[in-house]
Every structure is written in C-alpha cells, then in structure tokens.
Structures
1.
Amino acid sequence: MLDSPAMGRQVHLWCYGHFGPPVIVFPSAAGFAHEWDRQGMLEVLAPLIDGGKAKLYCPESNVSEVWTAKDTPLSTRMRRHHAYERFIMETLVPFVRDDCNWAAAPMASVGCSLGGTYAALFALKHPETFRRSLSMSGRYLMTEFSGGENSSELYFNNPLAFVAGMQGEALERIRRNTHLTLVCGQGQWEEGCIEETIAMGRLLDAKDIPNLTDIWGRESRHDWDYWKKQAAMHVPRLVS
C-alpha cells in the first residue's frame, strides 16, 4: 500500500522482481492491482522477472471513477483522473526509483484494454519518464466513454485528439524520448479497439513519433489468452 495525498487514500501496489528496469503495469477496467497475478500474466513473464531482467510494479487504478463512471459529471471524472495521474507521477514514480536505487530509472508502461489506454497516455504525456510503452487492445478515442461530451480536460487525455494537435517542442519531446507499441487482434470483442489502434498507429506515423503497430489475426480475441501471447512477445523488447 502507498499513501497518496492526491488520491486521498492508500493505493494498492503489487511488486514483482529483484532486479532490472522497472515496468509499470496498469490494470484493465477491473482496476485491481493483483489482476496480472490472478490472470497468469506473471507466469508468462517469469523468465524476465526471475532472471533479473525486469521489475514489475502493478498499481490499482480508479478507472471506475473515470472512464466507466458514465452517470458522473465529466468534470468530476476528469478531476479523479488528474488525481490518479498525480499519484503515479508524484508518489509511485519516486517510490519505484527509490526501490530500484536508480534515481533516473527509465520506465516502461504496459496495459491491456483500458490499461493499454493508460500505458499510452503516460508515455505521451510524460515521455521523459516512460521511455517505452506497450498497449494491448487499448482505446484511444475517449469521447467514446463520455457519450460524445468534450472538455479541455478530456481533450488532453484523449490521445487521438491531443496528439493530432501537437506541434513544436511538445511534439519533439515525445519524438526524442519515447516509443509506443500498439497491439490489437481482429477477433471477438475487439470492436472499437482495432479501429482505434489502427487510427492511433497511423497518427503516430504521421507525427513521426517512434512506434510499432502490431495487428494480430481474426483468431486473436480481447481476452487474457491472447494478451499473454502478446506480452510474451513484446514485454522483453521493452526492457532489452
């Protein structure tokens, strides 16, 4: 548990590994810190973790107060998202660097489904901290979660919107410092995810932002069986 002044409470955090570059793992819409453990993702990544090639830090999220809280006013939802962003940058990142005894540790961000959205968001908004990211079956058009309602606060957490408008030094920061990997299948339950993943990859290309878009076949579903395979392929590349 970590005390978070921004969140106004303690936040659950599960940690794995004894050595190696740190990887921040954002949970899916469930929001649970123990999700990757319960879903068997750590078994897939055991060679990295046990071999001292990566340390995984899995915080809970407040996604149920933000993206899936459809009956809550958008302004309130964005305030809760900002509080979570402050928790990550002001509490979790310093904790991880201290735990790794590595003051300027370059971090990777990873997630599935809405966790993939968080992984991409943090890399795009904080590229000097999150040098690489992996988003599996993420969503990138966040007005789909606001019923079409928009605001300046939502704009800057809506990747297909704010990245399209980026230019100058803000864009150069991303180009210099980070790399995004977007993965998505074309199978069952990937509706929305596949279209937005392709659109996001094209936008990153158009903005000359370092990225890899990896589209899997029609057998690849929006579930943990395929996210395990995708993680096994791509997470080692984040920490190499």
Note: The two ends are 29 Å apart (CA to CA).
2.
Amino acid sequence: MNSPGLIGPAIVEKRTMVAPGVFLRTIESGRSEGRPPIVFIPGWSTGADIWREQVERFSEMHRVIAFDPRSQGESSKTTSGNTPEQRAVDLHALLSKQNVKRPVLVGWSQAVQDIAAYVLRYGTQEIAGIVFVDAPVSDGSRGIADRPGQAASLFRLLALYQDEQEAYLRGMFGSIISKPQPIGVVDQAVAVAMKTPPSIGVAMLVADMFTTDRTAALSKIDCPVLIVAAATSPELRQQKAGATAIRNGRFVEIDDSAHALFLDQPDCFSAALSDFVDTLE
C-alpha cells in the first residue's frame, strides 16, 4: 500500500511495498498529460533527492518519479537482495503498484546495472525509452581481467569505506561533482549515503560491477536508448561501444563535468534528456 505525504511544492513523498517487509520511498510530481512518465533511478548509496532539480524541471510536462532503491536512503534495509537483479524486481513491482505505464527509465551509475537486469528479466515491451547515465553495462568478472588496475583501485578504496565511511563518502562526492552546488546539496548526499551500512554498500558494489555479465541486455533492447556520458569518464570508450551495440542507441557526450554530470551541467543534461523524450512522443 502507498502512504503519501507532502514534502514540498507539488512534490509528494510515498512509501510503496514492493516485497514482503520491503518498501521503497519515492518522490513524485507532475502529470503525464499524454507524455511518457519519467522514472529517475539514483546511483550507489544515493537517494531520490539527488534528482530533485530534474524532478522539478520535468514535472511541468511529465509525471516524474524518483526513488530510494532497496538499502538506500529511507527505503528498507535488507541483508540480502542487494543486487541489480533484485532491484530490477523491485522496480517492476514499483511501476506496477504506482500504475506507471510506458515510462522512460533514467539510470545513473549503479542504476545502469539495475536497468540492464530489468531488460534481461522483463524485456522492454512496456518501456518507452531508456537513458543510461555515465556508466557502461557491466561485463562481470571479465572486467577484473580486462581492467585489473581499476578493480584493484576499487577494492583499496572499499577498505577505507568500511573503516571511515563518512570520510570516504565526502571524498567520493568531491570527486564525482566538479562544480559548486547549492548549500546543503553535498551534505545531504553524504547524510543519505551514510544510511547504507558499509557491509551492504560493499556487497552492492561488488554485485554491480563484477558478479554478472549483463552485456546481453544491449542486444535485447528494442526501445530507443540514450547514453549520456561525461567527456572525462574513464569508461567513455565502453559507453560508446555500448551505444553502437544497441539497435536504437544514441550517444551524447557532456564536457566540463564529472561523474554526476546532471549536477555539474544540469542544463546540458536536461536538454539532452528533453530532446530524447520528445522523439518518443
């Protein structure tokens, strides 16, 4: 069942049960008015509110939903199921419970894996479009062999995350956001990320990046796809390759931004997303 409450102008907060004992917190605004609804999915350890500017901007002409995934933000914390495959099941249940028809799924970072897992399980017949934001679809354990330096760096940082969670998170947000933000944005992002226990956070990252090869999703997608990448991304080549592997894929590169490109360059990101959504109508 849904439990609504107003948290700001025209933005409604809900709790939606997606599995026994598991609820997801969502924020929602706007109405579809014949246009596809847009669902924003945040990255690792972040929450719905990191998309707040996009929620407010796109709600003028669309129904817009963002949510805290399982074990993130204010959503239920679970010791199992912290994988893209389970989050895909959660997403499917959320769309059904919220009566979201033919949405555009916008996934950043970790959420690229969630959408890929969704495609592998459910296909894209009920999806109007997909937007992958600054991350390639994982090639599983092959990535360790192909990119050992990247894997080694990640595991070294995970030791710091377990021992000094807040210090790690502040350093992380300092590296993935390159432009000054309004007062409180980074502090709120850190506070939200602190709600994910480090043991769960580590398990999530490993499951996202190294356990499952989800690249088969690229050839299975039969709806339009937009890939938006930061020009400085260390995974730029992989993202471009992903765009060519998708039948209806297009690629947009955004300059002068870090990984959280929708915070660094919100106007450029929103313009790219708006142009894409307009083609679906």
Note: Residues 144 and 212 are 12 Å apart (CA to CA).
3.
Amino acid sequence: MDFSLLVFGDDGWGDEMLRGALMTMAVAACSYLLGVVIGVFFASLKLSQYIMLRYAADIYTTVVRGIPELLVIYLVFFGGGALLRSLASGIFGYDGYIDLPLFITGVVCIGLSAGAYSTEVIRGAVLAVPVGQIEAAKAIGMSTSKRFWRVLVPQVSRFALPGLGNVWQLTLKETSLISVIGLVEIMRSAGVASGSTKEPFTFYLLAGVLYLGLTSISNRGFLRAEAWASKGVRVS
C-alpha cells in the first residue's frame, strides 16, 4: 500500500475521495428523506379501508423489493431520459437529447428502494400502537388532529426508529451502485483513482474505511435517537 497516494493536493487523491464521500452522504440523505416520504404515503395506502389502494401499495412494495436495485437504477436512468424526451417532443416539439441529472437520478433510484422498505417499517409501527390508547384519546374528547399528533405520531416514531435506522444503513450502502451511471461518489472515486495509479487495493480499502466510518457514526446517531424517543417509557 502506498499511503502517499492518499494525501490532499495535486500529488494525492485524498481530496477526490473526500468529495466522493460528501457526494455519497448527499445522495444518501436526500434518498432517505424521499424514501420516508414515500413510505408514509404508501403505508397510509396499505392501511386504507379501500382495497384498490391497498393493492396499489402492495404492487409497489412487491416490485421494488423483488427486483435488484441495479436494475431499478438502469430502468430509471434510461427510462427517465426517454420519458423526458417524449414529453419535450410532444409538448414543446423539441427533438434534442435530454437526460435526467445524475444526482436526481441517483436520489430517485435509491429513494424508491428506501421507500419500499420504509413503507413496511411505518405500517408495522402504526399497527404496533395499542388500540386502547386511541380509544382512550377518543374517550377524553381529543379531536382527530390531536390524536394524530399527540398519540399516534410519538408512538409510531418510537416503534419505527429501529427499522428506519436499518433502512438508512441500507440506503447508505446502496449509494455505491450509482457509480454505474457516472455519479462521482466513493466507489466511483475509488475506481478512477485505482485505474490511474494501478493501486486498486489502496483505494478500495479506503472506500471500505469510509463506508464503515459513515455507517458507524450513523448507527450511534440512531441509537441516541431511539434512547431519546424511549424516555419515560416503562419496560415491563
């Protein structure tokens, strides 16, 4: 291993790897937020009294969780560009080449995957809330909005945090797949650096260290969040 290759500046690749790590975090954070929003939406559909809405949500989670994430990336990357070109041609008469920005493509791809897993986590958390607490809130005259914000949301958040922490770790690691579309994150940076220096072990080992550092810090953050959310909860 040649550690001199990891210095910052023109003589090393340290700054390129750092920028790749920052891009990884940016994509992961945006994808995770998108996934949680998607998860809340489809979890509400799965809990709906209307069977067609439940079927629609089941189709989404089954399809996205049932096909490889790499295939999702290819479908969005190539299909998104084709859709944009079709819309531009049909609406504006523009026949030029259009593609989705790489960052948005990466966020959408990883976000769709995170959303499918978040859906099941949030649905399970809602079902874990004791029915008696909702009935008690109704009995004391709480409005629907107050029951939602004061009873349901705090309880669902507490039950969902461990599962959502796992979804975050999965999202963070899945960002490595978007290197195939050319977005320069950790794996893409490591690949370019190893190809230029002929030192693949050095840079892929550094990539592993970076991912391990990010996941470890994230795990500590979620553990603290779980501890905070569980304050005042008596464990029987």
Note: DSSP finds eight helices and no strands in the chain.
